[in-house]
Design brief:
The protein is α/β, with parallel strands linked by helices and about 700 residues long. It folds into 4 domains: about 90 residues, mini-chromosome maintenance (MCM) complex, chain A, domain 1, CATH 3.30.1640; about 160 residues, Nucleic acid-binding proteins (OB fold (Dihydrolipoamide Acetyltransferase, E2P), Beta Barrel); about 210 residues, 3-Layer(aba) Sandwich (Rossmann fold); about 60 residues, Arc Repressor Mutant, subunit A (Orthogonal Bundle). About 40% of the residues lie in helices and about 20% in strands. A 5-stranded mixed barrel has the order 4-8-9-11-10. The chain has a 5-stranded parallel beta sheet with strand order 15-18-21-14-22. The protein has a two-stranded parallel sheet with strand order 1-2. A hairpin with a 5-residue loop joins strand 12 and strand 13. Helix 15 packs across helix 16 and helix 22 packs across helix 23. About 0% of the residues have low confidence.
């Protein structure tokens, strides 16, 4: 059987892979693997292909023999070459793995959650018999270390046939191979109803060890193995654990490949594209059960479609993902908006800031039994949401040190880990949708946003759009909201009683999205996979005009800086997202005007100096305004002059009187003095006096 089997594989290699085998022999041992498409094996011999699935251990051994013996190689023998099968016809979800798959060849797709270090593993162990000094060789397979049963087993010599503890392991004479342990988990977007993601451990060896990082989306082809569990007392139990003996790794490079779009879906997507009102329909399909907030729903829709990431000739990269922050009073459905967005995104992860550490959000090195007590890398939410959307609720409740980890993840879209000797950079190319509550309960437009939500101004400046939601009583609006909420509840009550088809059918229509969520997810995935818009000249001119007009408000010695170049980049990203929503390859003038309206709306909510009514980028980026900075400078000069005059300290009343004579209202002057005392610019040696430290 062996010779026939090897000959069969050699015939297959001659017919289908002669060039590849020759190339491998030229580059061997730098290159050790021959990757074989499963469909080619099926084409050659369907019986051999099905036998490979059912009995992979034996058939792969024969295939490896054939590759090593192959008469196609030009550079002599290849003793450590590997025959690796890829592109199996069916991918098996982790949660569908069952006992009957053990010892079968399967393909499993998932997200790399943890990786252990690459370590040498004994492949052929050499043992010396202490009685007769015979060298015994034992090929190691599986997870347990095997010793010879009797002297002479696996040896060229006879041996003394003794057994027991008479063997000494010769570690220097033994042959080793690189080995690594990987843990993958199910894709978060495939989980519904709060399911716990299931995981699978994989053992990989030789040249495929060390090729993956946490956050990678992979298809792993391998043989499912099992080993017996032991109880804490060391007693063997009837329960078996499983792991995958990794044969080959396929990287899922294609964006949203895991979301299958059928021909029927494509026809529906094309129908939507031809609808002139598709943009408005998509916006109305975002959280229809929540009344109003059209501007925020529009921003969320744009964020789901995203701009285009650009790789520059100098090696730099400009992100295409759009970051949005929603700040507002409690009880106005911020969390519901976030949950809806994370569900509708083709890849979406929802987390709450209060329970999230920097490790849980970005990545960390952990020490547990997975890496046998060594440090291993574990990916957090932003890495797992790579090329998707991360919705972080209560982002302001995160610890300051955890917030600082977001700076790099938001702008460079990478996560760097430097801990316990592990230095690694993981990808986090995701859009961030954050929600925050003002710390004093309600939003105050006279206070800078960074003070109200305890987030650093530098972090806030990385958001493309910031919206504030205030809960202001308004009889007409309150009536509409009350009707909408009561209708939603009534529809829910009828559904619970299974009366939706009879009385009350109209109540359902108010909450049904115009585009079904499943179709919208596919529409977004299709758009992001296939549409890469380019700005038309009219759109470019419109963006330029808007930006230059805003900047021109900042010309003059007493004028604030109204916007920075970051806002211009945001305009471009949002314009591209708008074109993608229409499945259009060009950013048109209408897209530019629509985006300018949204950006103006966002800036007017959070970027206006409440005292002068003028746009001031520093209100977000620095946490103060030019007006306040100028006043603080005047007061500092007054205090310095009075200290010289009085010799040591300045009376507060005199400081306020002089500030008033300089045109600063007394109340404003008091606020500035309090602020300068808080930040340590001034100190108060005794009541009513100010000093400089």
């Amino acid at each position: 059987m062996d010779d026939t089997g090897v000959e069969r594989w050699m015939e297959f290699l001659r017919r289908y892979y002669s060039d590849e085998v020759r190339e491998l022999s030229v580059y061997y041992p730098d290159k050790k693997s021959l990757y074989v498409d499963f469909q080619d094996i099926e084409r050659f011999d369907p019986g051999l292909a099905s036998e490979l699935i059912e009995n992979p251990t034996e058939l792969l051994r024969l295939a490896n023999e054939a590759l090593k013996k192959s008469d196609l190689s030009t550079g002599g023998e290849m003793p450590d070459a590997h025959f690796r099968v890829v592109k199996l016809p069916r991918k098996l979800p982790i949660r569908d793995i069952r006992g009957h798959h053990i010892n079968k060849l399967i393909a499993v797709d998932g997200l790399v959650r943890k990786v252990a270090d690459v370590r040498p593993k004994v492949r052929v162990a050499h043992f010396e018999c202490v009685k007769c000094h015979t060298i015994n060789k034992v090929v190691q397979q599986g997870l347990t270390f095997r010793e010879p049963r009797t002297c002479g087993e696996g040896s060229d010599e006879e041996g003394c046939k003794s057994s027991g503890k008479i063997f000494r392991f010769l570690k220097d004479a033994s042959a080793y191979i690189d080995a690594q342990k990987i843990r993958i988990q199910e894709y978060p977007e495939n989980l519904r109803g709060g399911e716990q993601p299931q995981t699978l451990d994989i053992e990989v060896e030789d040249d495929i060890a060390g090729n993956t990082m946490p956050g990678d989306r992979i298809v792993m082809n391998g043989i499912l193995r099992s080993y017996q569990r032991r109880s804490k007392t060391g007693v063997r139990t009837p329960i078996f654990d499983i792991y995958l003996d990794g044969l080959s790794i396929e990287m899922e490079e294609q964006e949203f490949e895991e979301l299958k779009i059928t021909k029927e879906d494509e026809e529906k997507i094309k129908e939507l594209k031809d609808d002139p009102k598709v943009y408005e329909k998509i916006v109305r399909s975002i959280a229809p059960s929540i009344f109003g907030y059209e501007n925020i729903k529009e921003a969320m829709a744009l964020q789901l479609f995203s701009g285009v990431a650009k790789d520059l000739p100098d090696g730099g990269r400009i992100r295409g993902d759009i970051h949005t922050l929603v700040v507002g009073d409690p009880g106005i459905a911020k969390s519901q908006l976030l949950r809806y967005a994370s569900k509708i995104a083709p890849r979406g992860i929802y987390t709450s800031g209060k329970s999230t550490t920097s490790a849980g959000l970005t990545a960390t090195a952990v020490r547990d039994e997975f890496g046998d007590g060594k440090w291993t890398l574990e990916a957090g939410a932003l890495v797992l949401a790579d090329k998707g959307l991360a919705a972080v609720d209560e982002i302001d409740k995160m610890e300051k040190k955890d917030q600082s980890a977001l700076h790099e993840a938001m702008e460079q879209q990478t996560v760097s880990v430097a801990k316990a000797g592990i230095l690694a950079t993981l990808k986090s190319r995701c859009a961030l949708l954050g929600a925050a509550n003002p710390k004093y309960g309600r939003f105050d437009r006279y206070e800078p946003i960074s003070v109200q939500i305890e987030m650093s101004p530098t972090l806030l400046s990385r958001f493309d759009l910031i919206f504030t939601l205030t809960d202001d009583p308004d009889e007409v609006l309150d009536t509409q909201i009350a009707e909408h909420i009561l209708e939603s509840h009534y529809a829910g009550e009828l559904r619970a009683k299974n009366e939706g088809d009879g009385e009350g059918g109209d109540f359902f229509k108010a909450n049904v999205p115009e585009i079904p969520p499943d179709l919208l997810r596919k529409y977004i995935a299709y758009s992001r996979r296939n549409i890469f818009p380019v700005m038309s000249e009219e759109a470019r001119d419109e963006f330029k005009r808007f930006y230059v007009d805003l900047r021109s408000q900042g010309i003059g010695s007493d004028a604030p800086v109204p916007v920075t170049a970051r806002q211009l980049e945001a305009l471009v990203r949002l314009g591209e997202a708008s074109a993608r929503m229409r499945l259009d390859d060009t950013v048109m003038l209408d897209d530019a005007r629509r985006i300018i309206k949204i950006v103006k709306d966002s800036l007017s909510q959070v970027g206006v100096d409440p005292e002068t009514g003028r746009l001031d980028a520093d209100w977000i980026a620095v946490g103060t305004t030019k007006t306040r900075r100028d006043r603080a400078k005047i007061i500092r000069d007054i205090v310095r002059g009075l200290i010289k005059e009085h010799g040591g300290h300045a009376p507060i009343d005199e400081v306020l009187d002089l500030a008033e004579s300089d045109g600063i209202e007394r109340q404003k002057a008091e606020e500035i003095v309090e602020g300068l005392l808080r930040d340590g610019t001034f100190f108060s040696p005794k009541h009513g006096m100010i000093g400089l430290p």
